[in-house]
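Researcher: Let's run the pair from yesterday's discussion. Sequence first, then tokens, for each.
Model: Starting with the first of the pair.
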Amino acid sequence: MLKHLWKRMAAVLCAVITLAATSYVTPAAAPELRGVWISYLVWDDLPKGQDAFQKAVDQMFENCKSWGMNAVFVHVRSHGDAMYPSSFYPWSKFATGKQGQALSYDPLAYMIQSAHARGLAFHAWFNPYRITGYRMPFEEVSEKSPAKKYLQDTDPTNDRWVLKHDGDYYYNPSVKQVKDLVIQGVMEVVNNYAVDGIHFDDYFYPELDDRDPMRWFDRPEYLASGCKTNLTQWRRDQVSELLYGVNKAIKTMKPDLLFGVSPQGYVTHLRSSNKVFADIDRWMSQDGFVDYVMPQLYWGFETKTVAGEAAPYAFQQNLDTWLRLRRKGNVKLYLGLAMYRAGSDIKDYNATSEWLRRDDILKRQVEAGRSSAEISGYCFYSYDSFLQSEAQREVSNLLPLLR
């Protein structure tokens, strides 16, 4: 009897194993991200009246959907400002026409609604430190801006929370109160809006010169800190501390919300000792900083150096470098690609620019990414470039891959 019982048990076990093997379904891969950046320059061109604004936004997202996109990366803070009613930052000049001047409606809320209605994920794009720059001079910074308050109040302890460098103003990345302000500003959006992700680009540190007191930037804070690491690593640590704090705050409230960064595309520049200070090696090998990295691989396949040799930042060589980095950790890798270069005479040290001779560069770049089986998606800079006449042949070759 015991022998028969064992036979019955073995038969049942075999049936269970067979059923499990035949019924198991391999988990589906995450959908490929296909996005476009919508910058403050696009905001500047949008109508300011509510009805006209909403109509223009609807058309913009209809275009994105028709191109095969499933995500938009939209500026919500470009110059220490806000494209929405904020408790921390003044209204953006690019949303309203004048920094600090309010709208009677919430343009960000409508943008998110319009994007979601068309199946587009909405990623809120931030510049964490920049205060002035292209189309945003200091004289147009609102008196409501924290930057103006720090510089003009009678409290000497916050005088260096904002720094002027080569004519432009930045929040000081090494100041704890600045990091807290950035995190509070991000969480204001996370808590009040149904965004699908938070996105930082590469405006961290400007290019510095520690031999020149006029271009030291935050070197005095380093000297006062007593830190034993070298100045370059200390600056990288300031940016990493901000990213870690942002990611932790986001995940505490909304664990599934994506947080990522889009750095410059040439890794050697990111490892520089005098600019950006993005510790990309750390972010891509250690958990806790970002969910994805989206390097701006804005060069063609045939890019040369000034000496006429194949450039290490030409697309395929550059892609291979980033793939090696991706394999060191769990961070997803998206590619930022340059639609704005399509059909243009971009200097690449060829006799005739590759962007003038070829009209399938972006198509081949997407194909190269897909063939690696390690790229999770693509984002194109920028939305308005898809509408430029000189880009239309490139657009026509690209879109069949996205639809």
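Model: Moving on to the second of the pair.
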Amino acid sequence: MESLLSPAILFFFLGALATLVRSDLEVPKPVARLLSLYLLMAIGLYGGYKLSLGGIDGQALAVMGAAILASFLMPFATYAVLRIKLGPEDAGAIGAAYGSISAVTFITAVSFLQESGVAYSGYLVAAMALMESPAIVSGVLLARLAMSKQPRDGAAASALQTPANGSLWKELGRESMLNGAVLLLVGAMVIGYVTGQRGWDSVSPLMYDPFKGVLCLFLLDMGLVAARRLGDLKAAGVFLIAFGILAAVAQGAVGLATAWALGLSPGDALLLTMLFGSASYIAVPAAVRLALPGANPSLYIPLSLAVTFPFNIIVAIPTYWWLIGALKIGAGAAG
């Protein structure tokens, strides 16, 4: 209950309420973009700075390896479930979204840890960046393989088998690995690592102290946007809405088990769990629009944004934190 009363979560509710009562409250798009850039830069710099203090040891490599592997494999499970009701393009697009991550969910979990005075490791930021792309590759691959076996018409079959496919995969790799959010996050992390303690001390008044206030503004905007997408979920139906919650729970449970197996500290365990359980609604749609143009964006965007994202920040973060304490995960690990 305490986490529900945090300013950031309450501002999310305020944004959703403003939309539902048809208020004219809005956050201008350029401002929302600036808030997003700030949060990514702050998280990247802090993660790089923390990484410079502890270095990249065996545990860091194990976590990053597990993150990459999970991101690539999770779409296989979600795709199999989604194919019960959906065609290959929609199943592949949603599978890619749920194998990838939500940077905003991660940032909200970081804020939760900061409010609780709990430390976390910088390499979790690297794990977040590494989880963006593998899911996009596997989700698109699954969909296109299914489409090649069951082409809907001659044009579709030809499009799947032309040499232009090579340029498509090249462009897909560019979209998934060099999109603005990933580039800023990785770049800021490298800068934080290279400049170390002195660099962090020089920017912390701007990058650390205002962080929670900026997050409140950003989640206000996210509440506005998420509530606007609720109408799109009518097309999704009960099956997909249930999927949006159950997939987050199942994948989060895998993340929690992975954190326990790797002996992570409580703060790191929460962040890894939320990375596994979150779903992308920014990076993946940009790539999927290119590779799977037949996928319905009114399914994969509102599902991750209006169902899984609110569930994670309102229910999953405090619940997994309670489980980490109850199961004493990382009780003997360094913070």
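Researcher: Give me one sentence on the second I can quote.
Model: The CA atoms of residues 78 and 93 lie 10 Å apart.
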